[in-house]
Design brief:
Blueprint: H1 3-20, H2 25-52, H3 63-76, H4 83-112, H5 114-137, H6 144-165, H7 174-179, H8 185-190, H9 195-239
Helix pairs in contact: 1-4, 1-5, 2-3, 2-5, 3-4, 4-5, 4-6, 5-9, 6-9
Length: 240
Amino acid sequence: MSIWFALTWLVSINVLAFVLLKSRPMIIKSIIITISLVLVIYKTTEYVLQIASGNLSKIPVEFSAVTYILFGLTFLFSIKALKPFVTFAAFLSGFGYLIVFPFISDFLVTTNGFETTLVALVSHSLLYLGSLLVMKLELLPASTRKLIMIWTLLVVIYQIGMGFIIQFENEFLFIYIVLEGKAIIGLQEALPGIAVIIYIIYFIGIWTIYFFLASLFYLISQKIYHRYSIKELHQIKSTK
């Protein structure tokens, strides 16, 4: 995939999001349900088939892989307690992937193949679109950041547990690269006497950045809701 295709896709998805945000609530709800169905059915089928064939390394542990399932189930069954977290997770996974994709698309195609890369691109795009549409319909509570951190901790515990149970050595899993602190291994080896302290500082730094992203997401969600939903309500009232 060329960088121009990747950039065109990024722009197109954001234009589509802008158009959809102006749609009526019932249309947006239908789109969210459709996205949820597609993600749950496709990803569940993919994971089950892989696991049934004995490939346990396909058990979803990556942030986006977990989000596919949780996002779909949350909005199919209207699980209120999960909405702030899964909306954030979908936004972070989708937007993050779309931003870096133009720069790593060739690497991904070479490593994973064109079809797998295209499916991942579409899946992350659906997460991104879904999260934006949810932010228009749902005024996320003031406790959003707290809920995000709590659910994230539970997901991390699950990921750590899976890491002990299943061997993922041959898999490039970003979550374990972060949790294992591979970025600071060189520093720890150079300063073995304070290796533990270095890891603690590193982990606090990661957690702080994550909390900042959760806070930024909350502000964005408020902005989108008030810009589109409140404006729409005022327009409806003015026509009466």
